[in-house]
Structure to design on (458 residues):
């Protein structure tokens, strides 16, 4: 009885924690300061789905590495749109599928993701204009058509025709094609830096420029926007160097990705755009919740009527299962879609299946003359192989579906597979630990349990 009470206390503590996590608000996890929130997918929140196709001649072979690099670049750029939970996936051998939950302006999204991207190392001299990360500049490598003459970077000139100030144009020393490799270095005094290696051509260009411009600023520019503007502290003649700027690990990794994948390796065109309104998503969510609630009520009534006390305790166990699973969805976080909700509801059926198998074995043992305590222990023991095998089969199926969704860009299939697998794992814990503890504690309070077999469905 002492062991069962300890288990019950652990369950109640866990229940209190998951209820706190499940409360409908954005909060920070005490450990790691991790953000906790419910993430709704494209079909529930509304937004856009864009299918991009490689704009290359028919029959051109495209490497899977090129598609993966393009996917990474697109994800990095899309963060600048202010659209959260953006997902890009490689689909087949020549397409990339992008999903933008919450996006409403198709033109902004398309313009952002179609850019080919130009990475430049730009000489900004003494940085007389106090340029910083995020500032936009003009360079002689990507000279705007409206600038007819190149003004010096240390002064501002006016267009003689309009009288408007002409922005300065800076010189591009070299472009991203001269980078050979990029890596984030170990922190020095908690500050990370980015190490790089140049090609032979880049080594020559960089050695010449840095030797003549020690103490000057060299801006790293992506699509005419400065991402870093370090000072040249010493001549770099060996073809290797480092970029420092009080970076955190996340900032250093983000910059390394921008440097490594500054330009799309293949041109992409928009093949299809699918816009989903938030009204449709909200309506789908509400109907899904109603359907799930009605289904749970019907199942709970069946369990209570048919299995009596074990069935009622199983109902409480299923509620705890649902709370734990939803808490995991918020912590990970899992992007919830309609197929994802379907996977969650299906895993609820798996949780009930496990309880039903155990209760049926329990009733068989009681009919064979076992005591109630013996019947409970043997019921769990003899039902376990069937529960184990059925749930392993479901997990294998979920793995196959996840692989299928990843390979062919079917994110909804991936969502179904993830929620189903998580639900099945939690359902095992619910049936084997929670329901069993509840039943054992209930049995401890029943005097002469052999006189109350009808309470256990006999």
């Amino acid at each position: 009885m002492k062991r069962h009470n300890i288990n019950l206390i652990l369950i109640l503590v866990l229940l209190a924690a998951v209820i706190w996590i499940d409360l409908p608000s954005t909060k920070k996890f005490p450990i790691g300061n991790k953000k906790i929130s419910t993430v709704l997918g494209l079909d529930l929140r509304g937004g856009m789905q864009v299918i991009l196709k490689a704009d290359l001649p028919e029959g051109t072979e495209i490497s899977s590495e090129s598609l993966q690099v393009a996917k990474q670049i697109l994800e990095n750029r899309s963060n600048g749109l202010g659209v959260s939970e953006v997902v890009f996936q490689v689909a087949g051998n020549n397409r990339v599928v992008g999903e933008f939950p919450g996006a409403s302006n198709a033109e902004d999204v398309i313009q952002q993701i179609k850019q080919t991207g130009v990475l430049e190392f730009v000489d900004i001299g003494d940085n007389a204009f106090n340029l910083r990360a995020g500032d936009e500049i003009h360079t002689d490598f990507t000279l705007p058509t409206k600038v007819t003459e190149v003004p010096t970077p240390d002064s501002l000139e006016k267009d003689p025709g309009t009288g408007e100030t002409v922005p300065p144009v800076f010189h591009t020393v070299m472009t991203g094609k001269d980078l050979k490799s990029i890596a984030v270095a170990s922190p020095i005094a908690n500050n990370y830096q980015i190490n790089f290696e140049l090609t032979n051509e880049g080594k020559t260009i960089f050695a010449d420029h840095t030797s003549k411009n020690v103490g000057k600023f060299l801006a790293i520019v992506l699509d005419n926007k400065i991402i870093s503007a370090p000072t040249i502290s010493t001549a770099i003649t060996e073809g290797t160097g480092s970029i420092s700027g009080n970076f955190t690990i996340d900032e250093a990794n983000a910059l390394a990705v921008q440097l490594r994948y500054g330009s799309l390796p293949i041109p992409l065109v928009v093949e299809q755009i699918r816009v989903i309104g938030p009204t449709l998503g909200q309506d789908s969510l509400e109907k899904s919740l109603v359907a799930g609630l009605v289904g749970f009520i019907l199942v709970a009534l069946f369990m209570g009527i048919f299995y009596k006390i074990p069935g009622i305790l199983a109902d409480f166990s299923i509620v705890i299962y649902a709370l734990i699973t939803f808490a995991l969805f918020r912590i990970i976080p899992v992007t919830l879609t309609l197929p994802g909700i379907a996977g969650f509801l299906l895993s609820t059926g798996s949780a009930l299946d496990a309880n039903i198998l155990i209760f049926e074995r329990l009733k068989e043992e009681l009919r064979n003359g076992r005591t109630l305590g013996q019947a409970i222990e043997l019921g769990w023991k003899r039902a376990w192989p069937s529960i184990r095998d059925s749930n392993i089969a479901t997990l294998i199926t979920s793995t196959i579906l996840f692989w299928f969704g990843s390979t062919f860009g079917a994110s909804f299939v991936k969502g179904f597979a993830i929620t189903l697998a998580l639900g099945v794992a939690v359902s095992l814990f619910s049936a084997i630990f929670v329901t069993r503890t509840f039943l054992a504690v209930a049995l401890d309070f029943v005097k002469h349990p052999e006189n109350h077999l009808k309470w256990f469905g006999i």
About this structure: The chain has three domains: 2-30+277-456, 47-116+269-275, 119-262.
